[in-house]
Design a protein that fits this description.
alpha/beta; globular; DUF1273 domain-containing protein
Length: 194
């Protein structure tokens, strides 16, 4: 399926969720939200992201929604890719934080510049071997590259560590590198530099 809109550039995004209240070691604590927002906005400013561009991301609370909001605020088109139907997705990836994240998720989905796309059922044996989150990463990457590899800019909020489960930001970084994609330097959620 192709989009009618033909973007000048595609901003592919992956990033950490806001930490769950019971997370033993902080990765993206709520008090870092403003700093991470400023860092993402800084990358988008430098790349001059705007209305002629497409954002491809998911919709978890934390960096996904921050990125989607920033891109919508610039007039960009946003394709929100979810591994499950929205009602299921929010239970695991949004509602654990606080009510404002659910409101933000709903507001992004309701924005006229946003389109929500749910991952199709696995069709092949290879697809069935992957978690829905891994499949969503590969699906987002494939959709971004389908617009032309030279148009894709990968941005991530990542601490450099393996994820808590399959299909996290580290997996997306590996997939982008394997596809020969060019990535912006990762934004560290705790503000560390590499």
């Amino acid at each position: 399926m192709t989009d009618i809109f033909s973007p000048k550039r595609v901003f592919l995004f992956s990033g950490h969720m806001i930490d769950r209240p019971d997370r033993p070691k902080p990765r993206f604590p709520p008090e870092r939200e403003d700093a991470v927002t400023k860092d993402i906005a800084g990358v988008l400013d430098r790349l001059q992201a705007g209305a002629v561009d497409l954002a491809v991301c998911s919709g978890a609370c934390g960096s996904d929604l921050i990125f989607a909001e920033l891109m919508l605020g610039r007039g960009a088109h946003v394709n929100l890719h979810l591994p499950f139907e929205p009602a299921v997705f929010v239970r695991d990836s949004v509602d654990f934080a606080n009510a404002k994240w659910r409101e933000r998720f709903d507001a992004v989905r309701a924005d006229p510049g946003a389109r929500t796309i749910v991952l199709p059922e696995a069709q092949t044996a290879d697809e069935r071997q992957l978690s829905p989150y891994e499949r969503t990463n590969l699906w987002m990457l494939e959709r971004a590259l389908s617009c032309g590899a030279q148009k894709v800019h990968f941005i991530c909020v990542w601490d450099g560590a393996a994820g808590d489960g399959p299909g996290g930001t580290g997996h997306m970084v590996e997939a982008v590198e394997a596809a020969g994609g060019i990535a912006e330097p990762p934004i560290h959620p705790l503000g560390f530099t590499r």
